[in-house]
Specification:
Blueprint lengths: L6 E5 L6 H11 L4 E3 L2 E3 L13 E3 L2 H9 L3 E8 L2 E6 H9 L3 E6 L1 H10 L4 E7 L3 H11 L4 H15 L7 E4 L3 H16 L15
Parallel strand pairs: 1-7, 1-8, 2-7, 3-4, 8-9
Antiparallel strand pairs: 3-6, 5-6
């Protein structure tokens, strides 16, 4: 990693809106940012594409990559389900002349910050409340009672780490949260905030 290479992390408990904010930033600054595709051991969902949404790899393959030190961060997020960021993925994006934008778990985000303290901007997206988070997860309709409780309990735990990050953005209004994230990212990269349909330029 050279001194000019930077990393941007969007992290949050599940359901807080980090993926929506990540999509907003990628759509606004496609020439400057690239989505860092995480590796995962779980099966793909019907709408997900390998190499686009995740790199779907087997558990044994994942563990081999851990042994070979191929991850910049990894975590067993749920029992038997591993997620991680490959070093090769960051290199791929840097070589393309862009900044990796990571949408990752809280512990993984802390781990990357510790490795690249001078080169990382880490934004923590906070839900208005744990009750609101529970409501959002219920509306998705993808959780069992047990998995919903597991996610809510995990979210409560992850909220205790929010002050480890460079900025906390409370997502009580998605448009407002997106603009706050955009302001932080453009400041970090030295870009002017752009209006829709205009190219991003370096700030003077």
């Amino acid at each position: 990693m050279s001194e000019t290479n930077k990393i941007i992390i969007i992290t949050a408990p599940s359901g807080a809106g980090k993926s929506s904010i990540t999509r907003y930033l990628l759509g606004k600054y496609p020439d400057n940012l690239a989505f860092s595709v995480s590796a995962a051991t779980r099966n793909s969902r019907h709408y997900e594409k390998d190499g686009v949404d995740y790199y779907f790899i087997g558990l044994e393959n994942f563990k081999q990559k851990i042994q070979h030190n191929e991850f910049v961060e990894w975590e067993m997020v749920y029992e038997g389900k591993y997620y991680g960021t490959l070093k090769s993925e960051l290199e791929r994006i840097w070589q393309a002349g862009k900044t990796p934008l990571l949408d990752i778990e809280v512990k993984g985000a802390i781990h990357i910050q510790e490795q690249y303290p001078q080169s990382t901007l880490a934004l923590f997206i906070e839900p208005p409340s744990v009750d609101e988070l529970r409501s959002r997860l219920e509306k998705r309709g993808t959780e069992t009672t047990e998995s919903l409780m597991a996610r809510v309990n995990k979210a409560s735990y992850e909220l205790s780490f929010k002050h480890h990050f460079d900025q906390i953005i409370v997502n009580d209004n998605l448009d407002k949260a997106c603009l706050e994230a955009e302001k932080a990212v453009t400041g970090f990269l030295g870009l002017r905030m752009r209006q829709p349909g205009t190219p991003a330029t370096k700030a003077d």
